Amino acid sequence: MMTSRESCTSVGTTIATELKARAFKGGAMLLGRQVVTKVVGLVANILLARLLIPEQFGIYSIVSSAVALFSLMGDVGLGASLVQQHSEPTADDEATIFTVQQICVAVPAALIILAAPLIAQYYKFSSDIVWLIRFIALSGMVSSFGSISRIRLERGMLFGPLAIIETARSIVFQVVAVAMAFGGAGVWSFAVASLSSQIIAVVLSERFSPWKMSWKIKRHVLDKRISFGLSYQGLNLFGFLKECVNPIFIGTIYGAASVGIISFSVTTAAYPTIFASVFHRLYFPAFSRCQHDRTALKDLIQTVLWWNNMIVIGLTAILFPLIPILVPAVFGHKWDAAIPLVYMLALSNLTLGTSITLVALANALGKPDITLRYYAFWAVANWLLIVPLVLWLGINGYGVAQVILAITNVFFFRRMQEIADFELMEPLRPFVIAFAINSALVSGILKVTGAHGIPAIALFVIVGLFNFLTLSDLLSKGKLRLRAKEMISLYRS
Protein backbone atom coordinates (compact mmCIF):
# COMPACT_ATOMS: atom_id res chain seq x y z
CA MET A 1 0.00 0.00 0.00
CA MET A 2 1.37 3.44 -0.94
CA THR A 3 1.88 6.17 1.61
CA SER A 4 0.29 9.57 1.01
CA ARG A 5 3.66 10.97 -0.06
CA GLU A 6 4.21 8.14 -2.53
CA SER A 7 0.68 8.63 -3.81
CA CYS A 8 1.28 12.34 -4.39
CA THR A 9 4.55 11.57 -6.16
CA SER A 10 2.76 9.05 -8.38
CA VAL A 11 0.02 11.51 -9.22
CA GLY A 12 2.59 14.21 -9.98
CA THR A 13 4.49 11.86 -12.26
CA THR A 14 1.28 10.94 -14.10
CA ILE A 15 0.35 14.61 -14.58
CA ALA A 16 3.84 15.42 -15.82
CA THR A 17 3.72 12.51 -18.26
CA GLU A 18 0.33 13.54 -19.61
CA LEU A 19 1.39 17.16 -19.98
CA LYS A 20 4.65 16.18 -21.64
CA ALA A 21 2.71 13.95 -24.02
CA ARG A 22 0.30 16.76 -24.93
CA ALA A 23 3.13 19.26 -25.16
CA PHE A 24 5.14 16.82 -27.29
CA LYS A 25 2.19 16.26 -29.61
CA GLY A 26 1.70 20.00 -29.94
CA GLY A 27 5.44 20.41 -30.31
CA ALA A 28 5.52 17.87 -33.13
CA MET A 29 2.78 19.78 -34.93
CA LEU A 30 4.52 23.11 -34.41
CA LEU A 31 7.81 21.55 -35.46
CA GLY A 32 6.21 20.38 -38.69
CA ARG A 33 4.91 23.88 -39.22
CA GLN A 34 8.35 25.32 -38.53
CA VAL A 35 10.05 22.99 -40.98
CA VAL A 36 7.67 24.04 -43.74
CA THR A 37 7.58 27.76 -42.96
CA LYS A 38 11.27 28.13 -42.27
CA VAL A 39 12.28 26.35 -45.45
CA VAL A 40 9.92 28.65 -47.37
CA GLY A 41 11.09 31.60 -45.27
CA LEU A 42 14.77 30.86 -45.84
CA VAL A 43 14.28 30.63 -49.60
CA ALA A 44 12.22 33.84 -49.54
CA ASN A 45 14.81 35.68 -47.42
CA ILE A 46 17.58 34.62 -49.80
CA LEU A 47 15.57 35.93 -52.77
CA LEU A 48 14.61 39.15 -50.98
CA ALA A 49 18.21 39.73 -49.87
CA ARG A 50 19.28 39.45 -53.50
CA LEU A 51 16.38 41.49 -54.93
CA LEU A 52 16.34 44.32 -52.38
CA ILE A 53 19.06 46.51 -50.88
CA PRO A 54 19.90 46.98 -47.17
CA GLU A 55 18.25 50.42 -47.15
CA GLN A 56 14.87 48.94 -48.12
CA PHE A 57 15.12 46.36 -45.34
CA GLY A 58 15.98 49.22 -42.99
CA ILE A 59 13.02 51.38 -43.99
CA TYR A 60 10.57 48.54 -43.37
CA SER A 61 12.21 47.77 -40.02
CA ILE A 62 11.93 51.41 -38.91
CA VAL A 63 8.31 51.80 -40.02
CA SER A 64 7.28 48.46 -38.48
CA SER A 65 8.93 49.42 -35.20
CA ALA A 66 7.06 52.72 -35.06
CA VAL A 67 3.74 50.94 -35.61
CA ALA A 68 4.61 48.23 -33.08
CA LEU A 69 5.47 50.80 -30.41
CA PHE A 70 2.09 52.51 -30.66
CA SER A 71 0.32 49.13 -30.62
CA LEU A 72 2.18 47.93 -27.54
CA MET A 73 1.38 51.15 -25.72
CA GLY A 74 -2.31 50.55 -26.38
CA ASP A 75 -2.53 46.83 -25.54
CA VAL A 76 -2.74 45.81 -21.87
CA GLY A 77 -2.03 42.08 -22.13
CA LEU A 78 -5.58 40.98 -21.36
CA GLY A 79 -5.58 38.21 -23.95
CA ALA A 80 -2.78 36.39 -22.14
CA SER A 81 -4.79 36.51 -18.90
CA LEU A 82 -7.46 34.30 -20.53
CA VAL A 83 -4.81 31.68 -21.29
CA GLN A 84 -3.31 31.85 -17.80
CA GLN A 85 -6.50 31.72 -15.71
CA HIS A 86 -7.44 28.37 -14.16
CA SER A 87 -11.22 28.44 -14.84
CA GLU A 88 -12.80 28.45 -18.28
CA PRO A 89 -13.46 31.98 -19.64
CA THR A 90 -17.10 33.02 -19.79
CA ALA A 91 -18.88 34.77 -22.67
CA ASP A 92 -18.59 38.07 -20.78
CA ASP A 93 -14.86 37.48 -20.32
CA GLU A 94 -14.28 36.97 -24.02
CA ALA A 95 -16.53 39.82 -25.18
CA THR A 96 -14.94 42.29 -22.76
CA ILE A 97 -11.41 41.33 -23.70
CA PHE A 98 -12.26 41.55 -27.40
CA THR A 99 -13.88 44.99 -27.06
CA VAL A 100 -11.00 46.44 -25.08
CA GLN A 101 -8.50 44.98 -27.56
CA GLN A 102 -10.25 46.69 -30.48
CA ILE A 103 -10.12 50.03 -28.67
CA CYS A 104 -6.46 49.47 -27.84
CA VAL A 105 -5.67 48.77 -31.49
CA ALA A 106 -7.79 51.52 -33.07
CA VAL A 107 -6.48 54.40 -30.96
CA PRO A 108 -2.76 53.80 -31.70
CA ALA A 109 -3.56 53.24 -35.40
CA ALA A 110 -5.25 56.64 -35.56
CA LEU A 111 -2.28 58.29 -33.84
CA ILE A 112 0.16 56.69 -36.30
CA ILE A 113 -1.88 57.86 -39.29
CA LEU A 114 -1.76 61.42 -37.95
CA ALA A 115 1.94 61.22 -37.03
CA ALA A 116 3.07 59.60 -40.30
CA PRO A 117 4.43 62.83 -41.87
CA LEU A 118 6.46 63.57 -38.73
CA ILE A 119 7.93 60.05 -38.64
CA ALA A 120 8.91 60.27 -42.32
CA GLN A 121 10.39 63.74 -41.83
CA TYR A 122 12.43 62.64 -38.78
CA TYR A 123 14.14 59.84 -40.75
CA LYS A 124 14.38 61.94 -43.94
CA PHE A 125 12.24 59.47 -45.90
CA SER A 126 10.62 60.39 -49.20
CA SER A 127 6.99 61.51 -49.23
CA ASP A 128 5.68 58.15 -50.51
CA ILE A 129 6.83 56.50 -47.26
CA VAL A 130 4.15 58.53 -45.44
CA TRP A 131 1.51 56.38 -47.11
CA LEU A 132 3.52 53.24 -46.37
CA ILE A 133 3.38 54.10 -42.67
CA ARG A 134 -0.38 54.68 -42.83
CA PHE A 135 -0.94 51.47 -44.77
CA ILE A 136 0.97 49.38 -42.22
CA ALA A 137 -0.90 51.06 -39.35
CA LEU A 138 -4.27 50.16 -40.85
CA SER A 139 -3.23 46.62 -41.77
CA GLY A 140 -2.10 46.06 -38.19
CA MET A 141 -5.72 46.30 -37.05
CA VAL A 142 -6.78 43.25 -39.06
CA SER A 143 -5.22 40.51 -36.91
CA SER A 144 -7.05 41.64 -33.77
CA PHE A 145 -10.36 40.34 -35.17
CA GLY A 146 -9.14 36.75 -34.82
CA SER A 147 -7.67 37.15 -31.34
CA ILE A 148 -10.37 35.36 -29.31
CA SER A 149 -10.38 32.38 -31.67
CA ARG A 150 -6.59 32.05 -31.33
CA ILE A 151 -6.79 32.43 -27.55
CA ARG A 152 -9.31 29.57 -27.39
CA LEU A 153 -7.02 27.34 -29.45
CA GLU A 154 -3.95 28.19 -27.39
CA ARG A 155 -5.74 27.73 -24.08
CA GLY A 156 -6.92 24.29 -25.17
CA MET A 157 -3.38 23.47 -26.38
CA LEU A 158 -4.87 22.78 -29.83
CA PHE A 159 -1.63 23.40 -31.61
CA GLY A 160 -2.59 21.48 -34.73
CA PRO A 161 -4.98 24.20 -35.96
CA LEU A 162 -2.60 26.90 -34.69
CA ALA A 163 0.21 25.31 -36.68
CA ILE A 164 -1.93 25.39 -39.83
CA ILE A 165 -2.88 29.03 -39.24
CA GLU A 166 0.68 30.15 -38.68
CA THR A 167 2.00 28.06 -41.56
CA ALA A 168 -0.49 29.64 -43.94
CA ARG A 169 0.23 33.12 -42.60
CA SER A 170 3.97 32.70 -42.98
CA ILE A 171 3.82 31.18 -46.46
CA VAL A 172 1.41 33.86 -47.71
CA PHE A 173 3.72 36.58 -46.36
CA GLN A 174 6.82 35.13 -48.00
CA VAL A 175 5.19 34.34 -51.34
CA VAL A 176 3.53 37.76 -51.66
CA ALA A 177 6.71 39.59 -50.56
CA VAL A 178 8.85 37.79 -53.14
CA ALA A 179 6.26 38.24 -55.89
CA MET A 180 5.98 41.96 -55.16
CA ALA A 181 9.77 42.34 -55.02
CA PHE A 182 10.12 40.62 -58.39
CA GLY A 183 7.55 43.09 -59.68
CA GLY A 184 9.67 46.02 -58.50
CA ALA A 185 7.52 47.09 -55.54
CA GLY A 186 10.55 47.65 -53.32
CA VAL A 187 9.77 48.26 -49.65
CA TRP A 188 6.02 48.03 -50.36
CA SER A 189 6.59 44.31 -50.89
CA PHE A 190 6.73 43.83 -47.11
CA ALA A 191 3.67 45.98 -46.42
CA VAL A 192 1.35 44.21 -48.87
CA ALA A 193 2.67 40.83 -47.72
CA SER A 194 1.93 41.73 -44.09
CA LEU A 195 -1.69 42.66 -44.83
CA SER A 196 -2.25 39.53 -46.93
CA SER A 197 -0.86 37.24 -44.23
CA GLN A 198 -3.00 38.81 -41.51
CA ILE A 199 -6.18 38.42 -43.54
CA ILE A 200 -5.57 34.71 -44.10
CA ALA A 201 -4.78 34.24 -40.38
CA VAL A 202 -8.10 35.80 -39.32
CA VAL A 203 -10.08 33.73 -41.83
CA LEU A 204 -8.49 30.45 -40.69
CA SER A 205 -8.79 31.33 -36.99
CA GLU A 206 -12.53 31.73 -37.38
CA ARG A 207 -12.66 28.54 -39.41
CA PHE A 208 -11.01 26.41 -36.71
CA SER A 209 -12.51 28.13 -33.67
CA PRO A 210 -15.68 30.04 -34.62
CA TRP A 211 -16.54 32.89 -32.29
CA LYS A 212 -19.50 35.20 -32.73
CA MET A 213 -18.25 38.74 -32.40
CA SER A 214 -19.65 40.41 -29.29
CA TRP A 215 -19.10 43.92 -27.99
CA LYS A 216 -19.40 44.72 -24.29
CA ILE A 217 -17.34 45.89 -21.36
CA LYS A 218 -17.86 44.39 -17.89
CA ARG A 219 -15.84 46.13 -15.21
CA HIS A 220 -15.50 43.05 -12.99
CA VAL A 221 -13.85 41.20 -15.88
CA LEU A 222 -11.20 43.89 -16.17
CA ASP A 223 -10.71 44.33 -12.43
CA LYS A 224 -9.54 40.76 -11.89
CA ARG A 225 -7.22 40.71 -14.92
CA ILE A 226 -5.73 44.16 -15.24
CA SER A 227 -2.85 43.52 -12.80
CA PHE A 228 -1.65 40.37 -14.58
CA GLY A 229 -2.31 41.92 -17.98
CA LEU A 230 -0.28 45.06 -17.31
CA SER A 231 2.65 43.05 -15.94
CA TYR A 232 2.52 40.63 -18.86
CA GLN A 233 2.28 43.40 -21.44
CA GLY A 234 5.07 45.22 -19.64
CA LEU A 235 7.34 42.34 -20.64
CA ASN A 236 6.46 42.88 -24.30
CA LEU A 237 6.88 46.64 -24.01
CA PHE A 238 10.30 46.43 -22.34
CA GLY A 239 11.32 43.72 -24.79
CA PHE A 240 10.37 46.05 -27.62
CA LEU A 241 12.17 49.02 -26.06
CA LYS A 242 15.28 46.84 -25.80
CA GLU A 243 15.16 46.01 -29.51
CA CYS A 244 14.05 49.37 -30.87
CA VAL A 245 17.48 50.88 -30.27
CA ASN A 246 18.30 49.72 -33.81
CA PRO A 247 15.59 51.60 -35.74
CA ILE A 248 15.50 54.59 -33.39
CA PHE A 249 19.12 55.34 -32.41
CA ILE A 250 21.11 53.59 -35.13
CA GLY A 251 18.60 54.68 -37.76
CA THR A 252 19.07 58.27 -36.67
CA ILE A 253 22.88 58.14 -36.53
CA TYR A 254 23.79 55.87 -39.45
CA GLY A 255 20.64 55.72 -41.61
CA ALA A 256 18.32 53.05 -42.97
CA ALA A 257 21.07 50.98 -44.65
CA SER A 258 22.77 50.29 -41.32
CA VAL A 259 19.40 49.39 -39.78
CA GLY A 260 18.92 46.96 -42.66
CA ILE A 261 22.31 45.31 -42.05
CA ILE A 262 21.55 44.87 -38.34
CA SER A 263 18.05 43.53 -39.09
CA PHE A 264 19.56 41.05 -41.56
CA SER A 265 22.16 39.98 -38.96
CA VAL A 266 19.53 39.48 -36.27
CA THR A 267 17.39 37.37 -38.63
CA THR A 268 20.32 35.26 -39.83
CA ALA A 269 21.73 34.63 -36.34
CA ALA A 270 18.24 33.76 -35.07
CA TYR A 271 17.69 30.75 -37.34
CA PRO A 272 19.02 28.32 -34.67
CA THR A 273 16.46 29.73 -32.20
CA ILE A 274 13.33 29.39 -34.34
CA PHE A 275 12.27 26.06 -32.86
CA ALA A 276 12.71 27.19 -29.26
CA SER A 277 10.83 30.39 -30.01
CA VAL A 278 7.79 28.59 -31.43
CA PHE A 279 7.80 25.99 -28.64
CA HIS A 280 7.41 28.89 -26.23
CA ARG A 281 3.73 28.73 -27.18
CA LEU A 282 3.63 25.28 -25.57
CA TYR A 283 5.41 26.10 -22.33
CA PHE A 284 3.08 28.80 -21.01
CA PRO A 285 -0.14 26.71 -21.08
CA ALA A 286 1.71 23.50 -20.10
CA PHE A 287 3.39 25.08 -17.07
CA SER A 288 0.10 26.79 -16.17
CA ARG A 289 -1.71 23.43 -16.02
CA CYS A 290 0.70 21.94 -13.47
CA GLN A 291 1.63 25.08 -11.52
CA HIS A 292 0.11 23.64 -8.32
CA ASP A 293 1.90 20.28 -8.57
CA ARG A 294 5.59 20.90 -7.85
CA THR A 295 6.67 17.35 -8.67
CA ALA A 296 5.07 17.46 -12.10
CA LEU A 297 6.29 21.01 -12.64
CA LYS A 298 9.93 20.23 -11.84
CA ASP A 299 9.97 17.23 -14.15
CA LEU A 300 8.44 19.27 -16.96
CA ILE A 301 10.93 22.14 -16.46
CA GLN A 302 13.93 19.80 -16.69
CA THR A 303 12.61 18.18 -19.85
CA VAL A 304 11.94 21.52 -21.53
CA LEU A 305 15.31 22.97 -20.54
CA TRP A 306 17.13 19.92 -21.85
CA TRP A 307 15.54 19.93 -25.30
CA ASN A 308 15.49 23.70 -25.66
CA ASN A 309 19.21 23.99 -24.95
CA MET A 310 20.10 21.03 -27.15
CA ILE A 311 18.21 22.47 -30.12
CA VAL A 312 19.32 26.11 -29.78
CA ILE A 313 22.96 25.43 -28.92
CA GLY A 314 23.18 22.51 -31.35
CA LEU A 315 21.94 24.50 -34.35
CA THR A 316 24.16 27.42 -33.33
CA ALA A 317 27.14 25.04 -33.18
CA ILE A 318 26.44 24.07 -36.80
CA LEU A 319 25.93 27.66 -38.02
CA PHE A 320 28.71 29.44 -36.11
CA PRO A 321 31.86 28.22 -37.91
CA LEU A 322 30.16 28.49 -41.32
CA ILE A 323 29.18 32.18 -41.06
CA PRO A 324 32.09 33.64 -43.11
CA ILE A 325 31.41 31.35 -46.08
CA LEU A 326 27.61 31.14 -45.70
CA VAL A 327 26.75 34.86 -45.90
CA PRO A 328 28.48 35.65 -49.24
CA ALA A 329 27.63 32.30 -50.84
CA VAL A 330 23.93 32.34 -49.98
CA PHE A 331 22.91 35.99 -49.59
CA GLY A 332 25.49 37.83 -51.69
CA HIS A 333 28.56 39.96 -51.03
CA LYS A 334 26.50 43.11 -50.40
CA TRP A 335 25.81 41.64 -46.94
CA ASP A 336 29.48 40.94 -46.04
CA ALA A 337 29.43 43.86 -43.60
CA ALA A 338 27.03 41.82 -41.47
CA ILE A 339 29.44 38.90 -40.85
CA PRO A 340 30.99 40.19 -37.56
CA LEU A 341 27.50 41.02 -36.27
CA VAL A 342 26.14 37.57 -37.11
CA TYR A 343 29.04 36.02 -35.16
CA MET A 344 28.31 38.05 -32.04
CA LEU A 345 24.54 37.70 -32.21
CA ALA A 346 24.87 33.92 -32.61
CA LEU A 347 26.96 33.83 -29.42
CA SER A 348 24.37 35.91 -27.57
CA ASN A 349 21.69 33.35 -28.46
CA LEU A 350 23.35 30.52 -26.51
CA THR A 351 21.34 31.37 -23.37
CA LEU A 352 18.05 31.84 -25.22
CA GLY A 353 16.85 28.26 -24.76
CA THR A 354 16.97 28.70 -21.00
CA SER A 355 15.59 32.25 -20.88
CA ILE A 356 12.57 31.42 -23.08
CA THR A 357 11.69 28.52 -20.79
CA LEU A 358 12.01 30.51 -17.57
CA VAL A 359 10.04 33.52 -18.84
CA ALA A 360 7.16 31.18 -19.68
CA LEU A 361 7.54 29.57 -16.25
CA ALA A 362 7.35 32.89 -14.39
CA ASN A 363 4.23 33.90 -16.32
CA ALA A 364 2.59 30.53 -15.74
CA LEU A 365 3.22 30.81 -11.99
CA GLY A 366 1.45 34.17 -12.00
CA LYS A 367 4.71 36.09 -11.39
CA PRO A 368 5.18 38.24 -14.50
CA ASP A 369 6.41 41.03 -12.17
CA ILE A 370 9.71 39.16 -11.80
CA THR A 371 10.40 39.01 -15.51
CA LEU A 372 9.05 42.55 -15.83
CA ARG A 373 11.83 43.84 -13.56
CA TYR A 374 14.49 41.97 -15.50
CA TYR A 375 13.07 43.07 -18.86
CA ALA A 376 13.18 46.66 -17.62
CA PHE A 377 16.81 46.16 -16.59
CA TRP A 378 17.71 44.64 -19.98
CA ALA A 379 15.93 47.44 -21.86
CA VAL A 380 17.79 50.16 -19.96
CA ALA A 381 21.11 48.29 -20.04
CA ASN A 382 20.74 47.72 -23.78
CA TRP A 383 20.53 51.44 -24.44
CA LEU A 384 23.31 52.29 -21.96
CA LEU A 385 25.62 49.79 -23.64
CA ILE A 386 24.71 50.28 -27.29
CA VAL A 387 24.91 54.07 -27.43
CA PRO A 388 28.59 54.36 -26.41
CA LEU A 389 29.64 51.08 -28.08
CA VAL A 390 28.06 52.01 -31.42
CA LEU A 391 29.60 55.48 -31.31
CA TRP A 392 32.96 53.81 -30.61
CA LEU A 393 32.83 50.64 -32.77
CA GLY A 394 30.18 51.49 -35.35
CA ILE A 395 27.35 49.02 -35.91
CA ASN A 396 29.52 46.18 -34.55
CA GLY A 397 29.03 47.76 -31.14
CA TYR A 398 25.46 46.49 -31.32
CA GLY A 399 26.74 42.90 -31.35
CA VAL A 400 29.17 43.46 -28.47
CA ALA A 401 26.30 44.84 -26.37
CA GLN A 402 24.14 41.78 -27.05
CA VAL A 403 26.89 39.41 -25.89
CA ILE A 404 27.29 41.37 -22.63
CA LEU A 405 23.53 41.38 -22.05
CA ALA A 406 23.31 37.63 -22.64
CA ILE A 407 25.80 37.07 -19.81
CA THR A 408 23.56 39.03 -17.41
CA ASN A 409 20.82 36.42 -17.94
CA VAL A 410 22.45 34.40 -15.18
CA PHE A 411 20.90 36.69 -12.53
CA PHE A 412 17.41 35.97 -13.84
CA PHE A 413 18.15 32.23 -14.01
CA ARG A 414 19.27 32.14 -10.37
CA ARG A 415 16.18 34.05 -9.25
CA MET A 416 13.91 31.54 -10.96
CA GLN A 417 15.80 28.69 -9.31
CA GLU A 418 14.82 30.15 -5.94
CA ILE A 419 11.14 30.09 -6.94
CA ALA A 420 10.95 26.72 -8.67
CA ASP A 421 13.43 24.04 -7.67
CA PHE A 422 15.22 22.82 -10.79
CA GLU A 423 18.73 22.00 -12.00
CA LEU A 424 20.21 24.73 -14.20
CA MET A 425 23.64 23.52 -15.31
CA GLU A 426 22.86 19.85 -16.00
CA PRO A 427 20.78 20.63 -19.13
CA LEU A 428 23.22 23.35 -20.24
CA ARG A 429 26.84 22.35 -19.59
CA PRO A 430 27.31 19.45 -22.06
CA PHE A 431 25.86 21.41 -24.95
CA VAL A 432 27.99 24.53 -24.37
CA ILE A 433 31.17 22.42 -24.25
CA ALA A 434 30.12 20.52 -27.39
CA PHE A 435 29.47 23.86 -29.12
CA ALA A 436 32.95 25.15 -28.28
CA ILE A 437 34.74 21.99 -29.43
CA ASN A 438 32.81 21.69 -32.71
CA SER A 439 33.19 25.39 -33.55
CA ALA A 440 36.95 25.27 -33.00
CA LEU A 441 37.32 22.04 -34.97
CA VAL A 442 35.26 23.07 -38.03
CA SER A 443 36.71 26.62 -38.09
CA GLY A 444 40.22 25.16 -38.06
CA ILE A 445 39.46 22.79 -40.94
CA LEU A 446 37.91 25.60 -43.02
CA LYS A 447 40.91 27.85 -42.40
CA VAL A 448 43.43 25.17 -43.36
CA THR A 449 41.58 23.89 -46.44
CA GLY A 450 40.15 27.19 -47.65
CA ALA A 451 36.88 25.43 -48.43
CA HIS A 452 34.02 27.67 -49.53
CA GLY A 453 30.78 27.64 -51.51
CA ILE A 454 27.54 25.68 -51.21
CA PRO A 455 29.11 22.16 -51.39
CA ALA A 456 31.42 22.98 -48.46
CA ILE A 457 28.51 24.39 -46.45
CA ALA A 458 26.42 21.26 -47.04
CA LEU A 459 29.32 18.98 -46.05
CA PHE A 460 30.16 20.81 -42.85
CA VAL A 461 26.50 21.02 -41.79
CA ILE A 462 26.54 17.21 -41.70
CA VAL A 463 29.93 17.14 -39.97
CA GLY A 464 28.81 19.70 -37.39
CA LEU A 465 25.58 17.82 -36.64
CA PHE A 466 27.46 14.54 -36.13
CA ASN A 467 30.11 16.18 -33.96
CA PHE A 468 27.63 17.98 -31.75
CA LEU A 469 25.35 14.99 -31.11
CA THR A 470 28.27 12.65 -30.43
CA LEU A 471 30.01 15.08 -28.09
CA SER A 472 26.77 15.96 -26.28
CA ASP A 473 25.97 12.31 -25.61
CA LEU A 474 29.48 11.63 -24.33
CA LEU A 475 29.55 14.73 -22.12
CA SER A 476 26.09 13.98 -20.69
CA LYS A 477 27.07 10.35 -20.05
CA GLY A 478 24.42 8.90 -22.33
CA LYS A 479 21.54 11.13 -21.18
CA LEU A 480 20.95 12.39 -24.69
CA ARG A 481 20.02 8.89 -25.84
CA LEU A 482 17.80 8.37 -22.78
CA ARG A 483 15.94 11.63 -23.45
CA ALA A 484 15.52 10.66 -27.09
CA LYS A 485 14.03 7.32 -26.10
CA GLU A 486 11.59 9.12 -23.77
CA MET A 487 10.45 11.37 -26.63
CA ILE A 488 10.01 8.37 -28.94
CA SER A 489 7.91 6.67 -26.26
CA LEU A 490 5.72 9.75 -25.89
CA TYR A 491 5.32 9.95 -29.66
CA ARG A 492 4.24 6.31 -29.90
CA SER A 493 1.74 6.79 -27.06
Commentary on this structure:
The chain is mainly alpha-helical. It has one domain (12-492). It has 23 helices and no strands. It has helices at 4-51, 54-74, 78-84, 91-122, 128-139, 147-155, 159-182, 188-208, 219-223, 226-243, 245-254, 256-269, 274-289, 294-319, 323-331, 339-348, 352-364, 368-393, 396-407, 409-419, 429-449, 454-475, 479-492. The longest helix has 48 residues, at 4-51.
What spatial form do the alpha-carbon principal axes imply?
A: globular
What percent of residues adopt helix (DSSP H or I)? over 70%
**Rounded to an integer, what's the Rg over CA atoms?**
23 Å
Structural category is mainly alpha
Mean pLDDT: 82
Characterize the largest beta sheet: strand count, sense, and whether it forms a barrel. Answer: none
Continuous helix count = 23
Order of helices and strands: HHHHHHHHHHHHHHHHHHHHHHH
What number of structural domains do the residues give? 1
List the uncertain runs. Answer: 4-12
Number of E-type strands = 0
Summarize the structure in short:
This protein is an all-alpha fold. 81% of the residues lie in helices and 0% in strands.
